[in-house]
Amino acid sequence: MPNEIVLAMRSISKTFPGVQALDHVDFTLRRGEIHALMGENGAGKSTLIKVLTGVEEFESGEITIDGFKGNMINHSPQEAQAHGISTVYQEVNLCPNLSVAENLFIGREPKRAGIIEWKTMNKKAKDLMESLDIHIDVTRALENYSIALQQMFAIARAVDMSAKVLILDEPTSSLDDNEVEKLFRLMNRLKSEGVGIIFVTHFLEQVYEVCDKITVLRNGALVGEYETEKLPRVQLVAKMMGKDFDDLAAIKKSGEAKERSGELVIDAQGIGKQGTIKPYDLKVRKGEVIGLTGLLGSGRSELARSLYGADKPDSGALKVNGRPVSVAAPLDAMMAGMAYLPENRKEEGIVADLSVRDNLILALQAKKGMFRPFGRKEQEELADKYIELLQIKTANRETPVKSLSGGNQQKVILGRWLLTDPDFLILDEPTRGIDVGTKTEIQKLVVKLSEEGKAVMFISSEVEEMLRTCSRMAVLRDGQKVGELKEGELDQNNIMKAIAGGAGDE
Amino acid sequence: MNKLIVFVKKLTGTRLFLPLFCLVLVLLSNLIKTPTFFQVTIKNGVLYGYIIDVINRASDLVILSVGMTMVVAASGGTDISVGAVMSVAGAVCCYILAGGLQTVNEFQNPYILGVLAAVFAGMLCGCFNGFLVAKMKIQPMVATLILFTAGRGMAQLITRGQITYIRVESYKMLGASIPGIPVPTPVFVALLVVILTYVLLKKTTLGLYIQTVGINSRASRLMGIKSSRIIFLSYVFCGLCAGVSGLVASSRIYSADANNIGLNLELDAILAVALGGNSLGGGKFSLLGSVIGAYTIQALSTTLYAMGVSPDQIPVYKAIVVVIIVALQSTELKKMAKRYQTGREVGKKVA
């Protein structure tokens, strides 16, 4: 029974304009197996999933699933679902204005004579959530709950559809440790029930914690299938990157011992916003990378947003480069030399239908003013320069940014801000949902920018990443800045202690 | 041969191919029933013929659809008040030129004053719509519904419930033709509006901003683009276009007929934008597409007239053709056709 193949994909090929997205890829999933699908940006993970679930068509190859004779071609996610394949995507794809129960049962509401039985539905939803150890009011609208919880709902929905194959596409990128733990418990339970799970993630630790097998893709081709126990991490990373293992910890912070006494770039006094972030003081000097750390919802993003004017602060004073600045809207902050890469790439970052070129020049254009447009040639030169500089993988500069992979989209937004030559760069989760290779690139870039004398604010849920890049950290808890950690104090234990409130692990 | 295939593929791949194809198809369909459709004659020094009629009569709609394109792209909504705003502009112009009288045989005030006042009135209506949509965040359809219903009443108030006639030759020129020039004036007005708008979009960043705001207004705010200002501007611009269009329409009948100027034209303007291959959800847009769409609608009406369809029945035939055109451009249908085709090929292989 455990060795029974539930899903087999053979020699799948798919091309996008100018790119061979999948090149004769094989993939095998067995009953009761958690199988990690690994690879860098643009390796073809997402495309393979999309082909399997019918979002994209494939050109050649064969998909067979247990209980279905012959070649299975799904034309839509609904069809895939009917064949027993359920998917939870990286970004939550639910309806925010419907209730949790409605979201869970949308399209398969319990009905009697064509009329929805609300009581039954709400009860079923409640039972389902409780079986997952989530205690909430299922009749409230989805938007009242955090992204992390919404992600759990999406998983619950997929699980409840009694799938043979469950695909989890980066489900953990917006979850905190506690929630990840819950998810893993759930995955293991499903595994014991015989469900085959495809787990796409960028977190190596998580792969080694729950997965039985690993399939690695690179540049649209299959690298191989491995048993997790027999593949050391170093080897896995090497296989994904297609080069010798470049120790991630080896990014040098050459300014390690340097005394940080540059000029003040940011001097915030008592800035706050009712209900989101309590008034805080913050000083950032030239050449510094200040990290914001804290649990999910502790006010990291809120602090950054109030500084940038994304959410207008209702108290406090701000000086940028020694000059008092009143920040009522993002444009004011930009004019003062700030830049802000938002946490939510899809909703606040990219302008999906516009080209890479347009996306790159937009911020600089806004800074320059509406009546002084860049000439076409100037735009092309700027775009080409940053595509080259950041090694953005795109067919050309006129490709719509939405057809790029997540990591490359992030690079476009990064390029957009670097173009404005900011003194102070705020990066909110710049590496979320991005492969190891690009992650390292972005981390290196941050360190390089600080060496060039820029001040950077770095927000990330991954402590190791913060340790590698930051020279100082501000700690947040429950919407309040509770302290700072200086360069010498930066290590995992200290951070944990600070986050937990000092009494953490004594 | 291969080159030809590549050329055809490139041609059919461009965004404007389908709207243009539909326009040509509508025009060519006349060859069967009305071979004289493309005949152009000169009467009294002015060009006459069905095809001239299409170009001439479409002008009001072309001007409207230019404004509508901006509104749709920036706000993802439609301005349904444009027809009513046209009648307001016509009424304002006639009121000033007639100096409050009901019928005049010469201008009571300078012509230019009337024109400027009409355009200004259009922009004022646009400001009102823009304020409601951009600042008060009211849904575009609901916000513009106010002027849609109130606009004609306002026009009636201005003309005191009567039709104001301006029986002056120079007033008719805008809607008819200027002596010595064989092409009807509205054609030039439409052309001018399109060209000026194009230049405005190219020479400022307005075009880029409108698209950015239409696609992702939250992102645009974080990049320092004030989305509410851009949306406001797009409505003001739409009001301006409606004002100009109202002037032309009023000049055609040398009067301010508050009940009939621009009647139902707002729906045609929205349709023109859609026929041009633009998404009504906002975002990327093609100005030229909307213009082609506007000409297609007029070509359709004139074609049906030429075929002898009675005016009462025209909407039915128009609806049928519009459904076909819209279906032709739908990506879902293309997918279905493709699937059908591949399905057949697979079938062949098996056989």
A few lines on this structure:
The complex is a heterodimer of chains A (506) and B (351). Chain A has 17 helices and 21 strands.
Q: What does this protein look like?
A:
The complex is a heterodimer of chains A (506) and B (351). In chain A, strands 5-8-9-3-10-11 form a six-stranded mixed beta sheet, sandwiched between helices. In chain A, strands 17-18-19-14-20-21 form a six-stranded mixed beta sheet, with helices on both faces. In chain A, α12 (356-368) crosses α13 and α12 (356-368) runs parallel beside α14 (406-419). In chain A, 34% of the residues lie in helices and 25% in strands. Chain A is of the alpha/beta class and 506 residues long. Chain A is globular and about 70 Å long. Chain A has helices at residues 45-53, 77-82, 100-105, 118-131, 147-160, 177-192, 204-210, 233-241, 300-308, 330-335, 345-349, 356-368, 376-389, 406-419, 436-451, 463-469, 492-500, and strands at residues 5-16, 19-30, 34-38, 60-65, 85-88, 111-112, 115-116, 165-169, 196-200, 213-218, 221-227, 264-273, 277-285, 289-293, 315-320, 323-325, 338-341, 424-428, 455-459, 472-477, 480-485. With 351 residues, chain B is mainly alpha-helical. Chain B has one domain: Orthogonal Bundle (ABC transporter involved in vitamin B12 uptake, BtuC), CATH 1.10.3470. Helices cover 70% and strands 4% of the residues of chain B. Chain B is built from 17 helices and five strands. Chain B has helices spanning 2-13, 17-28, 30-33, 50-57, 59-75, 82-98, 111-135, 140-158, 169-172, 185-203, 206-215, 217-222, 227-252, 265-275, 287-306, 314-329, 331-350, and strands at 41-43, 46-48, 103-104, 164-166, 255-256. In chain B, the strands form two sheets. A three-stranded mixed beta sheet of chain B has the order 3-4-5. A two-stranded antiparallel sheet of chain B has the order 1-2. In chain B, β1 and β2 (46-48) form a beta hairpin. In chain B, α4 (50-57) packs across α15 (287-306), α5 crosses α15 (287-306) and α7 packs antiparallel against α13. Chain B is globular, with a radius of gyration of 22 Å. The two termini of chain B are 31 Å apart. In chain B, 48% of the residues are buried. The mean pLDDT of chain B is 90. The chains are: A alpha/beta (506), B mainly alpha (351). The interface between A and B is medium-sized, with 28 and 23 residues.
